């Protein structure tokens, strides 16, 4: 009697009247067959897809009946898709993040599948998925390549993780890629600032004030259009009313100047939107984000919602279920349900706040904290819905894999997850798990709370804010940095930044040394992947820390009126941030060519540019308006420097040329901030 079904190049998939999502799943599995199996000595056998209405939503059963027949049973599209992807992952060994982690697919002639049944597992969250947000890397490389490959691979990875819901991009992209996500079998939901997935009012009516009071009918027409465009799709309609950006609506409507007025309008409009959806959609699923100002109004009792609407609670962008910091305000109100009903979460493994978050690097907090926060929220009833901000995916795979395990019901810890992740994507190579485990321990603690750990924005926005204030007026506080330091003088803000970065210098130098040691033990594709993931992110932090400390040292020299030294240190700082950008670009290869070119949010290269401008400012202060003193210091002999019969005999040097000379002579203090008398004054 046969005991195996031989998956091989001759295996075919049969299904009558397949929907677009099921055909998409079949196409993926057929592609994987081509990757895995050679076409020599094929054995024709069959996988037959059978509709079985005794199975529940998203459930499947795979019955391996003989060497010639495997039956896949499900009652809906996602059930079949998950079954096909189970065959791909568990039998063909195609990993959930195979594309994003450069998995090398091993070829064989056949794979023996035991004759038995396989049943789908349960998920502890009903609606679970990703928000492809701040997707500036994916969007840019897709445009450059004139290809949707990265979007297709994002949707596939989500399905492989057991996800069933997506916000397919931000603003225009959310509508551009909506049909592609629907064809993949996913539920669609919406950005909290784009109610009902409708077009933004200001884009549709650019010459009108975005005031509901003035233009109620136009708002309602946009909402109606959004509903009708999606009524045939699996849609979870997001209800709400915010401004025309990610901010409260009353910034554009100042007449709503009390919490009572604000809450009353939001309540009225959300409940109106819900009734509009019910008019056009049978048994609709709707949600609303209690995010930012919405949560505070709801917690204080100013917003009343229909109980059928799923209330979505958000973390603060750093993985902690408290209200997010907005500007300099950080009340940290617990963001968890207090009453029964339908509740869910919006959770970030990537965040963009122009302060201290992580967009180009991983979440700076531990797997243990993420696990504890999510499971605690589940105990409070927030398990109807979980949307995860995944941004550009590749920098965040480690934590997206954490979320996958959690919504599958696992309780995980940092060390065990690192070991499992490395076993899956690095073949368990020695030392790699240690690097992933140590990463959150190395990140800078910038505040007093458990989750106050810094991503790469801490350095880039810290330097840019402080450099701007330095050039504007360093006798006044940098108002945009009060969130970190409180309302203290500029010099104390610099001290805070220096002390924080000094702590990170030690920890990231240690992690860098560990990564370097591990990298030197690896070879081939394994080394390439390691260097392009955890080692790259470690370098980004370390180089930015080094640049930030040079920047702080430059200010100390500036205060002492040692302007040449200040100029040099700012130049070195600029080069460190440029080095962080170069490291990213140096780790583009194959399909990743150009992936980091449009780092326009954290934007290391722009931080380097701002510091170049600061060099020019220091030069103006230090040797303006004549601009030949430093040149004479660096190029002229000691006996010629103070003889000014001719001020200069060569063109004025550029800032870059001066910096190059200073670096060459930096070991020799003969020029260091010496004072040339202004004999022409």
Automatic annotation (TrEMBL):
The UniProt record lists the keyword Nucleotidyltransferase: no
The entry's keywords: Hydrolase
Keyword Protein biosynthesis assigned: no
One MF annotation (Gene Ontology) recorded for this entry: hydrolase activity
Source domain of life: Bacteria
GO terms for biological process, alphabetical: carbohydrate metabolic process
Coiled coil ranges: none
Protein name as annotated: Glycosyl hydrolase family 115
Organism classification: Bacteria, Bacillati, Bacillota, Bacilli, Bacillales
